[in-house]
Amino acid sequence: VLLMVCAVVPLLACTLEGDLPKALMHHKRLRFVLPFSAFWMAALVFVCSLVRRRSFSASCVGSFALLWLPLVALSVLLFLKMSFFHHLSIYVVFAPTLGM
Asked: Is the whole model's pTM more than 0.85, yes or no?
């Protein structure tokens, strides 16, 4: 999980600098797919490791409810704002994290 999370920042830097392959740079909507997909894959592996446990402790449920859900919701809304819905309000994007 940590290796996948560590890949997010370099992929985002390459995306912002324009160092990605030309196939991804031609499509403005696909420009941010690599960093966000790396983050979403790390989040999916994190949840799978939580579900794999036989018993849930309070820390597992708390980390899922207070950490994983708002971060994944924020990343999905941020990806949608940067790729498809440019008119989406910034308040809508940060609503999951501000609501906690």
From this structure: no
